[in-house]
Specification:
Number of strands: 0
Mean pLDDT: 75
Largest sheet: none
Low-confidence stretches: none
Oligomer: single chain
Strand content: under 5%
Distance between the termini: 61 Å
Radius of gyration: 21 Å
Shape: elongated
Order of helices and strands: HHHHHHHH
Helix content: over 70%
Structural class: mainly alpha
Length: about 200
């Protein structure tokens, strides 16, 4: 029986590590592509602006203002996510301090970076904290860490996100919460990233 549990644990651990590796690779590729895009931004901007005097001028004049507005809204959404990441990191650091988890500084930095990843970021950032708790103190401390992270995630998802998004993007907190829940259920991570700016754009 013990062998069966061990094999099951090894199987699910392998699947989890495979998922984390795949997600990390996608994030790395996205960062590289984003860097190249920003690096070449002046030439891209000149090329797009040249469409205003081309045969596609009517389409450009119709679409460009809407894309500009959406880009500004998406930028505001990223600024809001940065504020949420700071608060989330502070709450998690306070929880680790209360639980006497060593290495708070490095773990808090990891939590901050993962806070920009909706849903999966919470899970990924919990892994090293849980590992430290397990190796230093045992399963009881690991359970306490999981409860602490769940409480922080609950506050972030149902209090911070709606309140901060509504303050910056002028949406009612209940509407923000509803939009995030529906978008995450239907579109996953991309839905969480684009839901609020898309809603504000549609209402405007």
């Amino acid at each position: 029986m013990l062998k069966g549990y061990t094999n099951t644990a090894a199987k699910y651990t392998g699947l989890f590590l495979k998922s984390v590796a795949k997600f990390s690779l996608q994030a790395l590729v996205s960062l590289i592509l984003g860097f190249l895009f920003v690096w070449d931004m002046p030439r891209i901007s000149r090329g797009i602006s040249s469409l205003a005097t081309s045969r596609l001028a009517p389409v450009y004049n119709e679409v460009a203002p809407m894309l500009l507005v959406f880009g500004q809204l998406f930028g505001k959404a990223l600024q809001v996510q940065a504020q949420i990441a700071v608060v989330n990191t502070a709450l998690t650091a306070a929880g680790m301090w209360l639980l006497a988890i060593p290495g708070i500084g490095l773990l808090s930095l990891f939590v901050f970076l993962c806070s920009f990843i909706p849903i999966m970021g919470c899970i990924i950032s919990t892994v090293p904290i849980g590992f430290v708790a397990l190796t230093e103190y045992g399963f009881v401390k690991l359970a306490m860490v999981i409860v602490m992270v769940a409480m922080v995630h609950f506050v972030e998802a149902y209090a911070l996100n709606p309140a901060i998004y509504s303050a910056h993007l002028k949406l009612h907190p209940l509407m923000v919460l509803s939009v995030l829940l529906i978008a995450e259920h239907n579109l996953g991570v991309w839905g969480l990233l684009l839901a609020v700016p898309s809603t504000v754009f549609a209402l405007d």
